[in-house]
Amino acid sequence: MAISYDIVKTLIRTEKGTVLELERKYLFQVDRRSTKVDIRRAIESIYKVKVQDVNTIVVPGKKKRVRQALGRTPDWKKAVVTLKEGSKIEVT
Fold first, then answer.
1. Secondary structure (H, E, C), the chain
2. pLDDT at 85 over 60
3. What's the CATH architecture for 4-83?
4. pLDDT, tens digit, for every residue of 27-57?
């Protein structure tokens, strides 16, 4: 089993993410190999909150070009975590 900080990489702070916080939903970038159960346990241990639901999305990488060379950014996994009533993550 991986360490919680290896599973949850970062809290995603975007305009959409701040709107979802009103519904107790938070966006996280997570490890691609992690499961919903792993993500739930990691969020509960790191932030000391109760998780109601976890939804995951694999975001495909974008095509990039550097001079004549074509390339791609890597795919990454995003988790939308819904907290139980009364739980909140303090974001500074």
1. CCCHHHHEEEECCCHHHHHHHHHCEEEEEECCCCCHHHHHHHHHHHHCCCEEEEEEEEECCCEEEECCEEEECCCEEEEEEEECCCCCCCCC
2. yes
3. 2-Layer Sandwich (3.30)
4. 999 999 999 999 999 999 999 999 999 999 9
62-79 pLDDT tens trace: 999 999 999 999 999 999
Q: State pTM to two decimals.
A: 0.88
**How many other C-beta atoms lie within 10 A of the C-beta of residue 70?**
9
Q: What pLDDT sits at residue 47?
A: 94
